[in-house]
Structures are given as structure tokens and as C-alpha cells.
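Repro case for the chain-ordering regression, as requested:
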Amino acid sequence: MYLRYLEDLAARGLATASSDALANLCGTTPAQVRKDLSFFGSFGKRGLGYPVQELIDHLREILGLQQDWPVVIIGAGKIGAALADYRGFLQRGFRVVGVYDNDPAKVGRPWGGSHIRDIAALAPDVRAQGVQMAVLAVPADHAQQVVDLAIQAGIRAILNFAPAQLAVPPHVSLKAVNMAMEMEGLAFALTHADAP
Amino acid sequence: MYLRYLEDLAARGLATASSDALANLCGTTPAQVRKDLSFFGSFGKRGLGYPVQELIDHLREILGLQQDWPVVIIGAGKIGAALADYRGFLQRGFRVVGVYDNDPAKVGRPWGGSHIRDIAALAPDVRAQGVQMAVLAVPADHAQQVVDLAIQAGIRAILNFAPAQLAVPPHVSLKAVNMAMEMEGLAFALTHADAP
DNA sequence: CTACACTTGTGAAGAATTTCACAAGCCCTC
DNA sequence: GAGGGCTTGTGAAATTCTTCACAAGTGTAG
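-- result from build under test --
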């Protein structure tokens, strides 16, 4: 989050940012900002604030964003297809190198400079290209089975859009985006907003 | 999360679930489960566990899910269009009643039983149908302006897919889904996994 | 009806996180 | 180069969250 705002500030030409300024942008407190950043090192200059570009570089290095990450998308349904063309990924250094599906009707359909590939090709492709990250956009009832396959193939980080809780071994990182659950959180907020 | 798993258990025909069982499913601890649930009331039976169906009903009421929520989707790009057809929403009681865009090339295009509508129609539609929830899937640089418009129209809860931090007044709930940021979290995990 | 095996609900203890508050440091001005 | 206005980095305090541990129920079996 800090990185995002710092890039905004850099784009606007600011050379330094105080913890106060960052806190206002991020909706936290100055003390929180300072504690968070100090966890990774001492990046600020007293009296001045944090040097924007320098801090950006540090954060990008900490996050491991100084390289491009190849990513595969598994599932070429509506969501998978939308993600495959999502510019936000490439902008942030994530290069979608392949889209996979098991539906013969979808396999072979053109995508990017190539075409949608059969899920059977996932393992060899992943190994050949050293891909470590996958985005999962398959129906919930196949999700676990597909994850197992992906991990077998060498995937070590997964962003899961399927509305299913997945089990992965400890060396694999997993993040889930559950849109319906987010909506339910909003419904809760709405039903309780009137009586605070 | 508890609701999700309880529904699974109900579908499998289980009548009761212990905090231990729920904890295993959710990846937390029995004590956590009990504390969480006890915040809203005393739902369990000592010696037995929690009555599954009864707890489901309670949670649905707490979350405000006993009604269907009408939802509008703003932005008919790739992501917006995918969300408009996303079955997961309807399954969970969120009925997409309209899709809006400001691009004349998209406005009028068929969608569902109707068609994509002009953003100018948002305010009257929202008021007429009493819609309180919106999903935002527009480019980041228009997001704030569109949110302001939506709030003006009467929207009080927003699920934001645009990679932008939005400012909303206190009576409006906002949740953001930032896919690139999730990927960056995974990149961090990957770069630090090897040296624990 | 009693003994027993379970499981909840919850104060209290423990751990983690956030906030406070201030010494130390930096820059600018005079 | 001394003084003053800012701002960081960080121990300590305050707060919040999680875990522990056990009394109090509940159902079952004999």
C-alpha cells in the first residue's frame, strides 16, 4: 500500500514524504507508518521525511518486484479471460505467459499472441518457463484438484478466485479473493449502519 | 467464513458441529471459534456442539442475508462484464439489476434480459429500485469521480475493483479488491520463502 | 438416578499490535 | 555556527486480540 502511494507521489514530482503525509493518504497514523517502515530498516531522514524514490526502490526490493514475474492463469471462463487481459497485472510487473483450461471448446481459442492451452500442458510449460505463480479461476468444485495439479507442476504461489477454501502444503503461498464474501461483509455493514 | 463451512456441513447432512470441527475446517483454533460466535450470542449446546442449521440461520440474520440485495455494476469492461455474469453473486443472494458504462460503444449492448445502460441513468435507476450496493469496475483514473456520482445517487456500499484508493464519507462502506496488490504479496512470500 | 464423556461459554493470562512521547538528528536561516 | 522548526526512530504504555483453563451444562449408558 505504501508503495502504491509513494509511486503516486513520485509521479507528482514530490521528492520526500513525511510519515504524516503517508498516514493521511493510507488512512492510518504517522506512528503506524514509522513502525511499519522501521521494521525493514531506517529509510527516513529526520526533519525531512522519507525520500520518495529511494523508499520506492527499497520497498520494491523488499517485495521482490525488481524482476518481472511470469504468471499462468488457470481457467478460461469469464473471470479467467478477463484476468488474462487485465492490464493492471502487466503494469505491476506480472506477465501472463499462459492461459489454461480443460474445456475442449475453449482450448485452442486465440489469446494474446498465442492461444488457450490444454491443462495437460501446464506441467511441462511451467517447468520449462520456471513459472512460480498461478491465478486460479475455475469452478469451486474443481478447484482443489486443479491446485494439486498446479503444485505438482511446480507452482509455489496461488491467487485463488474460486469460492472454495483450498488446502496447500506449507511451502506454497495462497491468497484467496472471495467476491461473494466481500459482498456479505458489505451487507453486514449496511444492515448495522442504521443502529450504531 | 463460518457460514460458508456450515453450509457445507449442512449439505453433507450433519446436524451439529463442535468448535473443534469448525476450527479444523477454517484453519483456526476451537477457542477462537467459540469467542467469535459468543460475540453475537450463545448458540451452542454444551456437550454437543453447535446446531448447524440453527447457527446458519443466526449467521444469515446477523449478516443481513435473509433478503436479496439488488446490486449495480458500474463499468462494463472486461472485469465488469465478467462480474455481471458471475453466478457466485446470485447464488449468495446478490441480484445484479443493472450494468452501467459511459462508453457509447458499450451502452445499449445487450446484457441479461435488458441492456447496458448509460451512467447517466444510474441515479434515477438506483433511486427507483432502492439499490444500496454497487460493484465498481472502472479505470483507476475515473474511479473517484464515479464513486462520488454513485454515492450522490444513493449507493451506500461499494465493492471496488479499480486499483485506486477511494475516499468515501463515513456513512458509506467500502471494500477494495486489489488484485495486483495480492500478487505483490505473493511475490514477497516467494522471495522470502527460501530464507526463513 | 448416577456416573461419565463431551463441549460450550467465559473470566483471566498471555501475546501481539498500536499509540504515545520524546531524545536524536537534519535542514534552513540569520 | 548557533538557534529553531520539523521529523524520524524507538522504548514504554496502552490497547486489542488470542489462548488457556475450567466451571457449568448436556446427553448417554448402565
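Ordering looks correct now. The mean pLDDT of chain A is 95.
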